[in-house]
User: What shape does this take?
Amino acid sequence: MQIHADPITVNCRKVLAGLDLMGAEYDLVHVDYFQGAQKAEPYVSINPNASVPAMVDGDFVLWESNAILQYAADKLGNERVYPRDLQTRADINRWLLWESSSWFPSCYVFLVENCVKPLLGGAADPAVLDAQAAQFHKLAGILDARLASSPWVAGDAPTIADIALAAPMHLHGWQRLPLGDHPNLQRWLTERVEQLPSWDKTWVGEGFTTTRPAAGTA
Assistant: This one.
């Protein structure tokens, strides 16, 4: 499998961390997001949406990050991260759809306002953040309630649902996500997801860097 991606973005990190979680082998083809490479050839012939990531597996081309995770898990036969039990799989699929339709858009507002705009010389718009707050807390509350009775989103072990749901929060400190009212969500993110080797391996830091600061530096 070839993964065309820029590891700094939410959905690219999601795919790379998920593939590592399931033990998939792949070749990474870098698509420079901030240089707009996703909007130009040859990439748009792979993904006409001009967004990253995309997968090429022989003659088969697939975009949408959650679909890539589902495909790769099934190709590998990894039922640990994507169980075949009908109800468990439906539950995971439900969370994947919810992430892409609701959770990602809400978290993304905080990413744009608190991370992207300042990085490009602008400033966060308090009105935009205030307008999104109620929706974020509603959605975070739904996820917090699930995690109150389950160590992971879909049971006792991490699945692609955990990776997908954590990805929009992957810069939560820099994003200034208001997690204080959602202790189960915060605990799951910091004490479980962020402790996974696959998550650590795909680290992204403030400034959209994949280079960790040297020991002893801020």
In short: The chain has a mean pLDDT of 96.
